[in-house]
Prior knowledge:
Helix content: 55-70%
Shape: elongated
Number of strands: 14
Structural class: alpha/beta
Number of helices: 18
Amino acid sequence: MPATVIFAGSLAGLATAMYNNGLVGIFWVYPGIMLFHFMLPRRQANLFNVTLILVTIPLAWMHLGPELTARVAVTLSLLVVFSNIFSHIADTQQAKEAEQRERLDALVRQLEAQNTALREAFRLREEVERIARHDLKTPMASIASVPRLLRERRKLDPPEEELLGMVERAAQRMLSMVNLSLDLFRMEEGTYRLRARAVDLGAIVQTVAGELQAHARSKQLRLVLDLPAEPVHAQGEELLCYSTLANLVKNALEASPDSGEVRVTLRRSSDGDGDAVALDIHNAGQVAPELRDRFFEKYATHGKADGTGLGAYSARLMARVQRGSLRMRSDEQGTTLSLRLPLWHAAAPARAAPGRIVVREPVRPESLPALSVLVVDDDEYNVVVLKSLLPSPPLSVRVAVNGRAALECVREGRPDIVFMDVEMPVMGGVDAVRAIRALEAERGDPPGFIAAFSAHDDEATRAACLAAGFDVYLAKPASREEVFAVLRRQDPASVGHRGPAAEDPLLIEPALMALMPEFLSSRRSLAQVLAAAAQQGERETVRETAHQLAGSLAMYGFKDASRASLELERAAPTEGIGELQARCQALEQMIAKAQPEARPNQ
């Protein structure tokens, strides 16, 4: 109903009440004014209320006389005025609240958009991690395998051996750095698991200094190393320490004025926080004043066109993960970066004894039976490397690019041995092995021997592959002996086990002999960590360390020690502490007594 009709009816009713009842009828005008004012738009309400007052005055005059009528007129007018004031205040408040709600809605929409962007960023980061872990590690593993294959095919002259060694070391370093880049994300998230062991910081400083001497000479700098006579071992991870020191020393060389000096000082330190290894890197350059307070912040950089601002940030992050600290001091005397890591209190790692060269009968392809082999991998480099390890004849080798193609090959002709990558497009290895096992059961064929061949080296992936139907798990890169073990339907990690025999030499590839002192020193250190963990009842540390020892010892040819490590890994969750300690001590003695001997190139 229109408001004018309602007002007309209300006006007639109020006029009748005032005419018949006098003062009582006039009292009804006051709530009527309030009702019209708050129920109708302000302009229309004011028009109706003024009309109502004009009707009320003569009727009040008739009943109340001039004096009371004047008071009624004034009170009604004031009521209209105050109602307008109050409604104006209310309207202003409502407008502000509406504006605030609009702003809040805009902020909510903005936050929702940011949350969507963050979810997409997390998805992309996970995808990048997957690419880094598989699509980068896989070709790098192939590159690292090529030098060994070339050494096996012919005798190399010294320049060729030097070039191949450089390629091999660079590929291994790249693999390590890929793993480290993935670990930095875990460090930021607080999910990185530190595997602390004894790290000879002096040896790492000397390695870094040797690698950066060319940079120092280009600026006519003196790189001075002030190191103690005896090795000083810190608690940490060797790769993290190397990355930190290489980053800091390189930055010091870049920041130092030409013809100056960069001094690296290593010493033991003791303070309220306990015993530590302290390392100072000093150069005569100064950090820009505007950068000093945020020197370790992410993406903070100054004066370097190609700088990312991640060097100092990642260095401090790696120091903190290793329960240490990294500080910077810069003034007119120069800049000093101080790295502090906990001191290794256990016995220092033993040094490897020099080996002697003897002759061992190499693995001969003619000893293999005639087998049908299927290689399944989407990476052509991996296929080339693996095929080079599979002598044909006596082997008949076929290739499939993914799991679906492998399934078709199996339908056409059942292979004796299958080497299958785990992650592939169209159909991955896990789905493919399940489909192949189902096909074998459908046909009534005996199960074929299928080896998972993957760049992943974690226990979860290994366990998932074995549970899916793979017979063995082979990590990239693989040695010829490991591949031949699969061809014999054996576990690559346990091939060649004959039982402990102190008089039997450990025979390895000649190209690996130069790495033996450092490798054995680190493995003996791991064995000591293993024994200490067993003594303290830390079963998970025992299992993880034994797994790490098993893989690395197998890759370098220490099959007996690798087998003992695998047995220890399997026994760690359930075996008694006393038995675990005995196993750890036996493994530690086995590694301590190891005398690696090289075989000549054939």
